[in-house]
Design a protein that fits this description.
The structure holds two protein chains of two kinds.
Chain A lengths: L2 H9 L2 H33 L13 H28 L2 H33 L7 H22 L3 H33 L14 H33 L4 H7 L7
Helix pairs in contact in A: 2-7, 3-4, 3-6, 3-7, 4-5, 4-6, 4-7, 5-6
Chain B lengths: L5 H18 L1 H4 L1 H17 L3 H24 L4 H5 L2 H7 L4 H30 L7 H26 L6 H27 L5 H30 L1
Helix pairs in contact in B: 1-7, 3-4, 3-7, 4-7, 4-8, 4-9, 7-8, 7-10, 8-9, 8-10, 9-10
The chains are: A mainly alpha, B mainly alpha.
């Protein structure tokens, strides 16, 4: 066995994963908060107002990173679902299921901030634009995965069923996006471009990218914490979990 | 012990499922009745103005048929799961996707086909222009098997759950969105005098793909939820 597979197997063992998650999560959260605050300062204070949208555009620093995350979280979930179904790795099942609620919340934030942004810019809270509709369908996909996972009694079977659904969803996402695009362009062209004709300025770009970094790190921290909790729940009968529960310090 | 051929196994399964449906033929009409009721509700809610109804009639027919198909999905594996014959299907030496494919085909014959038959009546009730009717029927002929195939995958995941109705709707809805868009889109295009062939071809392509892949996915899902 080479080093990589060895590392993979080691990371896949529940006690080791638990120990890493406990150590890593606070650092990741701290890093994400600092990055996020810096990005907010850059976006809300330093960056100049847009020449078309004035200050209203500043919601982009929340909206766009969350939109990226909503897709990234789905891909992360589907990749883990694939690993879980093919190689039956327990950690992957747990990681996939832990990322579903986090991704769903990012999707919901995207939709909510989008409609707050849409009201002053487009004059409406909601429009049946292709992007909005596919984001909504993405939210339904997340909710389906979460619902299926919670509806089945046996945790591992539930994770496998929901992982399968996540894989069906990943095939579905591009099809939905394509069909919705076709559907909307049949009726009317896209009337509003998100950023107007101007490309984004550098003073606006760095807070955006920094915020994207912060949301990514936050996502991983959040997934680690969630995965750790469900891992302890799942392995409640095992020796290492009992030792943690009794506060006998960290398992070797 | 010798087993029959795959073809004979499928034929036996088809004969059994058809017979079961025939013995309870009153139940088999429920989806049709449901679709009619949904369609009747729309003029009551929107007003009887013929021009307005004609404009949205194709969409209403599709939504009504989609909902009726959703309600009918529940019966696909329920009886077989309750009396244990679903486990026997999974254990049988014949390829599971093939057996499930014939089950889905029978399910489409007994729920999808009656809905297509009743569709002209629904369209007439909503004043759909006669010229659009062939497009509507073609779109339905392509879309209803797709609904059965996609639905079967999701039903296989929820098999054995006591109250799966709402969850099933949530699982199936994202899969039905593209089908609904293309099927209703073809009718709307035909109604406004535009080219309607492209969405029908897309539906056909999706059907060809789903005919191959959906039984495989259904079998994989069933193995997960029965294990």
């Amino acid at each position: 066995m080479n080093t990589l597979t060895l590392w993979f197997h080691k990371f896949g063992s529940p006690p080791v994963f638990h120990r890493i998650a406990v150590r890593l999560a606070p650092w990741l959260f701290g890093f994400a908060v600092i990055c996020g605050l810096a990005a907010l300062y850059g976006g809300l204070v330093v960056a100049p107002a847009d020449y078309q949208q004035s200050d209203a555009y500043r919601i982009i620093f929340i909206h766009v990173p969350c939109a990226w995350m909503s897709l990234f979280a789905y891909f992360f979930m589907a990749a883990n679902a694939f690993i879980a179904l093919v190689w039956r790795i327990k950690i992957s099942e747990i990681l996939a299921m832990a990322s579903a609620p986090v991704g769903a919340v990012f999707t919901a934030i995207t939709l909510i901030t989008g409609s707050i942004w849409g009201k002053p810019m487009w004059g409406t809270w909601w429009t049946w634009d292709a992007r909005l509709t596919s984001e909504l369908v993405l939210l339904f996909l997340y909710l389906g995965v979460i619902g299926l996972y919670n509806a089945i009694e046996d945790r591992r079977q539930a994770a496998r069923a929901a992982a399968f659904l996540a894989l069906v969803g990943i095939v579905n996402v591009p099809i939905v996006h394509f069909s919705v695009n076709w559907w909307n362009t049949l009726h009317q062209g896209s009337t509003v471009r998100l950023l107007g004709p101007s490309r984004i300025d550098e003073s606006m770009l760095w807070p955006l990218l920094l915020m994207a970094l912060a949301t990514h790190v936050w996502f991983f921290a959040s997934v680690l914490v969630r995965a750790r909790v469900s891992l302890v729940e799942l392995e409640g009968g095992k020796e290492w979990a009992r030792e943690i529960a009794l506060g006998k310090g960290e398992p070797a | 012990m010798r087993y029959g051929t795959n073809a004979s196994a499928c034929a036996a399964l088809v004969r059994r499922d058809l017979l079961l449906t025939w013995r309870r033929r009153g139940d088999a009409l429920n989806p049709v009745l449901f679709a009619v009721i949904v369609v009747v509700l729309f003029p009551l809610a929107l007003g009887p103005e013929p021009n307005q109804l004609a404009r949205i009639s194709a969409g209403i027919v599709f939504v009504a048929i989609l909902l009726a198909g959703l309600l009918a999905l529940d019966t696909l594996f329920r009886g077989d799961h309750e009396d244990g014959s679903l486990e026997q299907l999974v254990l049988s030496p014949h390829p599971l996707p093939l057996l499930l494919g014939s089950k889905i085909a029978v399910h489409w014959l007994t729920t999808g086909l009656p809905l297509i038959v009743v569709a002209p009546v629904l369209a007439e009730m909503l004043h759909l222009p006669r010229s659009v009717l062939p497009v509507l029927l073609a779109a339905l002929a392509l879309a209803t098997p797709l609904l059965s195939l996609f639905g079967a995958v999701c039903v296989a995941l929820t098999v054995g759950m006591r109250r799966s109705g709402m969850l099933l709707a949530l699982l199936v809805l994202p899969l039905y969105v593209p089908v609904l868009i293309f099927a209703a889109g073809a009718c709307n295009a035909a109604q406004s005098g535009l080219a309607y062939l492209a969405p029908l071809l897309w539906l056909g392509a999706a059907l060809a793909l789903a005919l191959v892949l959906a039984p495989l996915a259904c079998a994989a899902a069933l193995r997960i939820s029965i294990s």
